[in-house]
Amino acid sequence: MKWADITFGDKPTWHRKAADQKAGHDHTLVLNGVAAQLLNKIKEETIATNGHLGEFVFGGRGQKGHVVEIRKTWMLVLKNAGIADLHVHDLRHHYASQLASSGSSLPLIGALLGHRSASSTARYARLFQDAQREASDRAGAAIMGTETTGMVVPLKRGA
To answer: Looking at beta carbons, which pairs linking 63-71 to residues 24 or more positions away fall under 8 Å?
Structure first.
């Protein structure tokens, strides 16, 4: 992640170039308020510590000049949080599931994840059981007529 690829302000984004990602196409991610706030804090702390920003958000001392492998850091985070088994990629699945469970469409979720095909998104967007149960309860209430009256209404033949 390069500072030059991040746009702050009212509509923060991160523009990822095709050459820098597995998908092989440019993708602009909309940054939510929490992510933008965190990146702003990192930016301010980097300037306060170093007197300037480097090219990369997560700079490093290796050949590439940025953090490449986060395994050790991730394991430390898990240990400190008391979490036994969680992979970084699980966070992506959870993000997609949260979006799906809150009613976001698969095309919207796919756009946020940078997918070009709906089948890719469908693998990520597993609905939580509570959201499924709530939707099923709404459908059942609508079918039975209990949604507004609280009473079961007999179905008419041919209706």
So the answer is: 66/1
